[in-house]
Amino acid sequence: MRTNRGEPVGGQEPDRRRANREFGLRLLIPAALFVGLLVLIVSTVPSEVILPAVVVVSGGVLAGGIIGFLTGVRGPHWPIYALIFTTVAVLLLLPSPWQGLALVAVPAAAGGYAMGKEIAFFRLDRRHPVPLVNH
Predict the structure, then answer these.
(1) For every one of its 135 residues, what pLDDT tens digit does the chain have, with 9 covering 90 and above?
(2) What is Dmax (Cα atoms) for the chain?
(3) Which pTM value belongs to this model?
(4) Is 123 exposed, middle or buried, given 0-12, 13-18 or 19+ CB atoms closer than 10 A?
(5) Residue 41 near residue 61 (C-beta atoms within 8 A)
């Protein structure tokens, strides 16, 4: 039911707009952590190591996001653990400065995984909207 101005009664928003806002808020948390990680890296890492650090963080976020998106809402969790373990192992075997960036890959991949999962939740919500319940 709507008022004469077309607004929903009781302050309820349409499902699409509410779902979009909730998606934005849920995605904001891992995105803010990602930005915080980049600020921390840029402020603490020597200037000659910034490019490799940004490559590690960007690659971790991208790979983690892809895994989170592809595994979906209820998918297996082992692929993200395999990615993190493999990335840390490979970076520890490489020469400096890559070796010193091994632990940076952990929060980057985890943040990307969280963002990918949120996108998978959003896709599921868009396909199967839940109707509003009127009390």
Answers:
(1) 445 555 555 555 556 777 778 878 888 888 888 888 888 888 888 888 889 998 999 999 999 999 999 998 888 889 999 999 999 999 999 998 899 899 899 999 998 998 898 888 888 777 765 565 565
(2) 69
(3) 0.74
(4) middle
(5) no
